[in-house]
Amino acid sequence: MTQNESTARQAPPLAVALRHVAYEDLGLLEPWLVWRGWQVRYVDAGLDALHGWDALAPELLIVLGGPLGAEDDVDFPFLTEEVGILRARIAAGRPTLGICLGAQLMARTLGARVRPMGTKELGYFPLELTPAAAGTPIARIGAQPVLHWHGDFFDLPDGVQNLARTPLCPHQAFMAGEHAMAWQFHLEVDPSRLERWLIGNIDEIRACGLRPDALRIQARANEAGLRRAVAAVMEAWFTRLKQVRIF
After folding, report:
1. Measured between alpha carbons, how far is 103 from 220 in angstroms, rounded to an integer?
2. Which pLDDT belongs to residue 1?
C-alpha cells in the first residue's frame, strides 16, 4: 500500500451541508455525524461558488432550509445550480437529504411542482405517518412532534410515495430510492438553539398569531424526544445504505 492509498483510506467520510441562512444549520445532525467520525463542511449558497463544484465528491449532501421559494430562480439564480447538483447526485445514487427548502428543491429536481399552501404551518406538531412509511427511516419518528416552519409544499414526484402528512400539509416526506430522503419538517433543529430562529423570524411568528414563548415552551418539552428521533432516523437510514452497499 502506498502512502497516498493509506491516507485516502484513513480520511473520514465527508458530509457537506448546503446552507441558505446562517441560523438554519445542521443542528442536532452535526454532533450525531461528528461523533460517528464524519467530517462536516458547510457551503453557503449565494456566498460560496457552486459552479464547477464536484457534486458527487461528498459521501453525504444535506440541503438545508431557508426562507426562499424553491422556484425563486429570477431573484436567486444559484437555485438553478442547486437543482443541477441534486439532479447529479440523485442520478448517481449518492446519499442526499433535503430539509424543508431542500426537500422542495429535491421534489422540483424530480419534476414535481412546489406551491404555496395558502397558510403557514409553524410550531411543534406530530406527523401522521402513512402506511408507505412502514419499514422506512421516517417510521422511526413515530408520534414525536417535530418543528414545522413553512408556507410552501411540494407535490409528489412521479414514482415516489408519500410517507407523512399533517392536516395543513398533505406531503411531508418522501424517499427516492434508498439514497435520497426529503423532510418538509425540521427534525434537525436543536431546541437549545431555537432562539436564533425566533430572532430571525419574529415578524413571521407574530403574523401567525404566535408568541416566541409558546415556541420556547414547545421546544423544551420536545428536546429529549427530538434528540432520540433524529438519531433513530439517521441510524436506520445509514444502516440501510450499508446493507444496499451505498456506503
Report:
1. 26
2. 45
3-class DSSP assignment, residue 157: coil
Give the residue among 125, 219, 209 at the shortest CA–CA distance from 166. 125
CA separation (Å) from 96 to 93, 117, 210, 230? 9, 25, 33, 16
- Tell me how far apart the alpha carbons of residues 112 and 213 are, in angstroms, rounded to a whole number: 36
Give the separation between CA 193 and CA 209, rounded to whole angstroms: 22
Q: Are 70 and 106 in contact, with CB atoms under 8 Å apart?
A: no
Strand stretches in the chain, DSSP E: 14-19, 39-44, 60-63, 96-99, 114-125, 128-129, 146-154, 164-165, 173-176, 180-183
Taking every pair of Cα atoms in the chain, the longest distance, rounded to a whole number of angstroms, is: 64
CA 100, 53, 57 angle in degrees (round to 5)?
80
Q: Spelled out in words, what is the top-level CATH class assigned to the domain 3-243?
A: alpha beta
Distance, CA of 37 to CA of 11 (rounded, Å): 10
Over residues 14-38, the pLDDT tens digits come to: 999 999 999 999 999 999 999 999 9
Q: How many helices (H) and strands (E) does the chain have?
A: 7, 10
Write down the domain spans for the chain. 3-243
Contact criterion met (CB below 8 Å) for 174 and 162: yes
The whole-angstrom separation of Cα 230 and Cα 236 is 10
pTM, two decimals, is 0.95
User: What is residue 53's DSSP assignment?
Assistant: -
CA distance 125 to 144: 8
Comparing C-alpha atoms, which of 238, 223, 136, 133 is closest to residue 187?
A: 223
